[in-house]
């Protein structure tokens, strides 16, 4: 990696004339934006065939904009920058006052040749074996050169976008997996990075599928908060026992549920497997508002009223939305960069005592060989010299503060802010948008972050009427 960085500095790519792009309207933005398509090599080691990378530019509100834009890198892997326009509109309006915001669709996502298949209509009633067989068919039918869809290639695409738009130094905002991509770009092209803002920080040594320990810690926090909340404890006095009983029941066999479809109200049968159950709980823990619905959802399911739980499951992974994750892209990255590091010892340690168990690892073991990607060799990461603002939610189930602390040890000038009542991705919360703007304007000054303690915890949902007022 150090050698690659030296090459990047020694032989910079000649800067072409900036692309003007075209006016475009995308979901999540009321005003017209600017869209740019940049042709990049499919394989940077074998120039020839190219693919198109989409970038969306939200111009600064003020005419006298600063010359250093904020590049936005979405998470997943599998999410596109254009998918998170609503989040950007909410979290980065203060930044956009003086800087262009550039959202990049990583290769294989969104408008950059999304790797995806239309899901079968009967997906809710399919068994795990049928779902995995359908995933294999999708991977094979796309016939993509999955080995070309790596974090390294995506980082080099970012550099081509920077050159195409005519920018000098840029600031990087990365969320979740986007923090891995941002750190990799900063190591490849250090001279081109002014600052980094990393939200939900993935440490360089983090193995994405090994998330059992962090997920269990977030679930335990939710249970304790319910026990300390008088109304929640009164409504759900046996919450832990009910959760354990549900997991044990589904571990024996999936449950077939006859119910009205939460999407359409039409009668249908839904299959609830242990994998779907734990995945839904895990996803709910990402957001503190959703985490505080879990006691109600678990209690309802324990009493065989599965409709609220299935509705939550559908909302988290609704297969009809345009912004759905690019599943094959997720597999392309994880199977090359993470799965090879999943040693039996790591899997056993991570799954011990965690509700997540090993279903995801088992699924990867079945699907990764279908992609036929070569393992990525991880070298010792170089230090990042650019000033960095690291943001964490104390109750994040995937990238908790300990991950940011590990990443900060490889940075020269990192500030780490923790939102006590935050989950996964805290940029839109409370005063965080203002703090991001202050950091970007003066990255060498300490950010006064006392206001983070004023971000309140959401109330618990006790019944079908929704959260308490």
From TrEMBL:
Keywords: Hydrolase. PANTHER family: HYDROLASE ALPHA_BETA HYDROLASE FOLD FAMILY, MONOACYLGLYCEROL LIPASE. It holds the Pfam family Abhydrolase_1. This is Alpha/beta fold hydrolase. InterPro entries: AB_hydrolase_1 (IPR000073), AB_hydrolase_fold (IPR029058), AB_hydrolase_sf (IPR050266), Peptidase_S33 (IPR002410). Residues 96-426 form the AB hydrolase-1 domain. It comes from the Bacteria. Transmembrane segments: none annotated.
């Amino acid at each position: 990696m150090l050698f690659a960085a030296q090459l990047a500095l020694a032989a910079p790519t000649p800067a072409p004339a900036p692309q003007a792009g075209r006016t475009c309207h995308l979901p999540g933005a009321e005003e017209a934006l600017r869209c740019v398509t940049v042709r990049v090599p499919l394989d940077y080691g074998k120039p020839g065939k190219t693919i198109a990378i989409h970038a969306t530019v939200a111009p600064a509100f003020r005419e006298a904009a600063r010359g250093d834009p904020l590049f936005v890198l979405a998470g997943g892997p599998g999410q596109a920058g254009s998918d998170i326009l609503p989040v950007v509109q909410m979290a980065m309006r203060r930044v956009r006052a003086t800087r262009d915001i550039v959202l990049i669709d990583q290769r294989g996502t969104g408008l950059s040749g999304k790797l995806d298949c239309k899901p079968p209509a009967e997906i809710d009633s399919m068994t795990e074996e049928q779902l995995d067989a359908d995933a294999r068919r999708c991977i094979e039918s796309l016939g993509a050169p999955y080995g070309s869809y790596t974090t390294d290639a995506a980082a080099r695409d970012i550099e081509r976008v920077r050159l195409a738009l005519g920018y000098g130094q840029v600031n990087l905002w990365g969320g979740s997996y986007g923090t891995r991509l941002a750190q990799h770009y900063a190591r490849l092209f250090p001279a081109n990075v002014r600052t980094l803002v990393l939200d939900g920080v993935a440490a360089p040594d983090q193995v994405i599928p090994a998330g059992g320990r962090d997920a269990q810690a977030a679930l335990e926090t939710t249970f304790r908060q319910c026990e300390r909340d008088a109304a929640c404890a009164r409504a759900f006095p046996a919450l832990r026992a009910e959760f354990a009983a549900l997991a044990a029941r589904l571990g024996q066999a999936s449950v077939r549920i006859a119910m009205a479809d939460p999407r359409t109200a039409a009668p249908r049968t839904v299959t609830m497997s242990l994998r779907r159950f734990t995945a839904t709980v895990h996803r709910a823990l990402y957001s503190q508002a959703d985490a505080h619905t879990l006691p109600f959802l678990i209690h309802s399911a324990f009493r065989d009223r599965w409709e609220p739980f299935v509705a939550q499951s559908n909302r988290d992974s609704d297969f009809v939305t345009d912004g759905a994750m690019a599943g094959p892209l997720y597999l392309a990255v994880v199977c090359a960069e993470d799965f090879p590091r999943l040693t039996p010892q790591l899997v056993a340690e991570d799954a011990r005592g965690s509700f997540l168990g090993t279903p995801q690892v088992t699924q990867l073991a079945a699907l990764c060989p279908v992609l036929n990607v070569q393992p990525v060799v991880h070298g010792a990461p170089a230090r990042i010299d650019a000033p960095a603002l690291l943001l964490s939610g104390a109750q994040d189930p995937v990238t908790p503060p300990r991950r940011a602390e590990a990443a900060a040890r490889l940075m020269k000038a990192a500030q780490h802010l923790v939102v006590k009542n935050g989950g996964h991705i805290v940029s839109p919360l409370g005063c965080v948008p203002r703090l991001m703007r202050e950091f970007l304007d003066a990255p060498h000054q300490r950010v006064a972050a006392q206001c983070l303690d004023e971000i309140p915890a959401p109330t618990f949902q006790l019944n079908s009427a929704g959260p308490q007022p």
